[in-house]
Amino acid sequence: MQEYPAFTKIPSVPVTYALQLVAILEQRGISQEKLLKAANSPADLLSQPDARLTLAQFSDLIDEAKRQINEPALGYLLGLELKPSAHGVLGYALMTCKNIREAVLLAERFMSLRTNVLDIRFSEEGPIGVLEFGLVGYLGPYRQLAIEIVTSAVLRIAHFLLGKISDTTEIWVDYPEPDYYKEWQDQLPKIRFGMSTIQLRFPTEVLDRPLALADLMSQKEAVAKLETELVLMETTSDIASRIRAIMDLNQEEFPSLGLVAEKLSMSSSTLKRRLQQQGITFQQLLDEARCARALILLDNQALSIERVAQSMGYADSANFTRAFKKWTGKSPSAWREGQSQES
Q1: Long-range contacts of range 239-242, CB-CB < 8 Å, 24 or more positions apart?
Q2: pLDDT tens digit string along 274-293?
């Protein structure tokens, strides 16, 4: 089995997502019991409807599912199968919003309740609406799959709410086009590969379009439940994972403590105290985020070490090398050589 970073061992993936994966395999004649056994997972792993899996557990299930059905595009397949109801109260709240703008802002506010390893940010660039996605840290071989699940799941919700996606809608991702994309491109909007960020881009003209299932009272009840969950989460959640996701969203520069605290709707002193309770500092998370960004860039063999250093904001590649050694114990070239040998 894959060896995982510590943050992937925190329960963060709703069991409903894993159950949808099981349903996909059962349609192909592979039982839940067989999947769990092959993935060395407990037999009762998926038995509690409100349970959460760790990223490590979910990734092991994904790995085994890929082997069982020989489907490299499992991320697309799973994401497109996730109905709004799979997202719990948040999914219900989105369906009962009065328009798309309200649904987008609701998702931005409450996404952390579905998983603590993903953050989204909405903005408008003239006639284009932008949903930007941030994923926690360095997920290695699972990062691309996670992006494909997230973006296609959001598309499934958009299809449900709108009925038809605009021809000008685009997905931006920061990795090269995979071989299996052409088999799926008819089910997806245009995807731009090799971009510097992960986004869903769509015309702002749809934002004020009314939704067929809009229900003010039902929506208020759902939002009240989400707000209660959010209050509980703010006192018990893994705040470090949320900060990791926020840092991943900021591709141009890494955010300051003050900006992160503002994003989390708390003071800088409260944020410091919350982190201290978890035995970690903001500087440690910042160094971790820088290291994660460097590892992602180094995965792209087409980029020279000098280009990676520049992308990380280092005018001198020697300074980047010193920082990278501090983070990993290896030079960038030694790390890249080790990755090549493993693959």
Answers
A1: 239/264, 239/271, 239/274, 239/275, 239/278, 240/7, 240/275, 240/278, 240/280, 240/285, 241/7, 241/10, 241/12, 241/116, 241/117, 241/136, 242/112, 242/116, 242/119
A2: 888 888 899 988 888 888 88
